[in-house]
Amino acid sequence: MSSLKNYAIVTASYWGFTVTDGALRMLVLLHFHALGFTPLDLAFLFLLYEAMGIVTNFFGGWIGARFGLRLTLFTGLLTQIISLCLLAALPDNLTLTLSVVYVMGAQALSGVAKDLTKMSSKSAIKHVVPEGQPGGLFKWVSLLTGSKNALKGVGFFVGGFLLNAIGFEPSLLTMAAALLVILLFALLSLREEIGKATSKIRGKDLFSKSANVNYLSAARVFLFASRDVWFVVGVPVFLAGTLGWNFNEVGSFMAFWVIGYGIVQASVPSVLRNTKTSAKAIRATIIWGFILCLLPLHIAAGMTDGGAAFITENLSHLDQGSWLIGGLIIFGAVFAVNSALHSYLIVDFSGADKVSLNIGFYYMSNAFGRLAGTLLSGLVYQYYGLTACLVVSAAMIAAAVLLTLPLRQETRHE
Q1: Based on the number of CB atoms within 10 Å of its own CB, is 256 exposed (0-12), middle (13-18) or buried (19 or more)?
Q2: 36 Rama sector, left if φ>0, alpha if ψ -120 to 50, beta otherwise
Q3: Rounded distance, CA 380 to CA 387, Å?
Q4: d(Cα 56, Cα 103) in Å, to the nearest integer?
Q5: Banded pLDDT at 354 (limits 50, 70, 90)
Q6: In Å, what is the CA distance from 389 to each residue of 60, 227, 299, 329, 369?
Q7: Distance between CA atoms of 46 and 374, rounded to whole angstroms?
Q8: What is the mean pLDDT of the chain?
Q9: Of 171-185, 267-281, 365-379, which one has max mean pLDDT?
């Protein structure tokens, strides 16, 4: 019972953090877009955020296994508070270049914070679900991941709303105060250590010895790069710049997209009821990955001049914007299934004693994919447009599917 209570405290803290993380992304994106930053400038604002995720997950897994998950959780919350305060203190008289450097630095701290708290919560699951209950593990992992993404979507909405209502700096300080309350709650409530390895942690343990974990981590790089190559900069800037949406409209769409994505993700075990073993989950991952690969190409076809003309002539009730929005909603649902399957498999492939090591290694790959996707989102959009972002997305999904083909069900955890 104590392990369940501890897990609930960790997860509640992570949920609170997630709302501020989503809000911060929307605040930074919309605020600096309004100040005249180019798509590539905006991408650079998030580069260190993603890059620090690589470092944090790599060493954070070792820290969690060596010292326990309380330390990683508390450190993550405190670091996010510092990041928000630094952004709120951004000087008005800085040049464009210095502003980008300053925001990148603050965002780097936020990236450290996000991955420390996420790793803490996802690693804690392994200490709640007993071994030999793959169906239960799938359900718990999907519920956590789905709820996290739904709350991040709420954060997008909160960020757009706060920016319109009270402005950039007051919004950041408000979120910092809310996180301080969450940190105090966690400090007072979480008394027992969780996730600390019982065996000695060696330096070579930082690198996974499991072929499954390595292949799945490589697939994760391309899977999340395929989403962020259009999600981070391309679509929000297209909605605001080309379609003329205001902050609330952009923030609301991105929010509802992520909320819907999270709801689908949480319900995947109920939809895929026969996927209760890693062997069945592997097969499902390949099938759903192939379906996902086709969707960006389908959306991109409608974004070309010829595709737009076809829509106008044959689907008079649709325009290019409606085609894009509808396609992205379907993409989000199918992507959620893929992400849920991946998240379940990495936990299933990991033993309970050193689960944070594998989780950290896996989400290091996730962060690397997001870094590549973020950079490409600004670069490809600025020079080639949103259609090119979608084509690149399809190519990356194809690579992710190929990397899941060697996965095999394990008879033991390494």
Answers
A1: middle
A2: left
A3: 9
A4: 19
A5: low
A6: 32, 10, 11, 16, 15
A7: 7
A8: 81
A9: 171-185
Asked whether the predicted pLDDT for residue 178 surpasses 60, the reply is yes
- By mean pLDDT, which of 41-45, 135-139, 318-322 is the weakest? 135-139
> Mutual orientation of helices 386-404 and 278-303 as an angle, nearest 10°?
160
Residue 179: the pLDDT is 94
Q: How many residues does the chain have?
A: 414
Query: Which tens digit of pLDDT belongs to each residue from 257-286?
Result: 888 888 888 888 777 776 667 788 899 999
* Main-chain dihedrals φ then ψ at residue 275, nearest 5 degrees: -95, 75
Q: Find out whether 399 and 365 touch, Cβ atoms under 8 Å.
A: no
| Residue that wins the pLDDT comparison between 263 and 232 | 263
Q: CB–CB of 7/124 below 8 Å?
A: yes
The alpha helices in 304-408, defined as continuous H runs, are 305-314, 320-348, 355-384, 386-404
**Coil, helix or strand for 20?**
helix
Set out the domains of the chain in order of their start, with CATH numbers: 2-189+207-404 (1.20.1250.20)
Cβ neighbours of 145 (radius 10 Å) = 24
At position 232, the amino acid (one-letter code) is V
The residue to which tokens 């940190």 are assigned: 183
| Residue 74 phi, psi dihedral angles, 5° rounding | -65, -40
**At which residue do the structure tokens 């780097």 appear?**
108
Amino acid identity for residue 297 in this structure:
L
Is the sign of the CA dihedral 29, 33, 39, 43 positive or negative?
negative
- Asked if 201 and 65 touch (Cβ cutoff 8 Å), the reply is yes
Tell me what the mean pLDDT of segment 249-258 comes to: 83
pTM of the full predicted structure?
0.75
Of 121-125, 313-317, 339-343, give the range with the top mean pLDDT.
Answer: 339-343
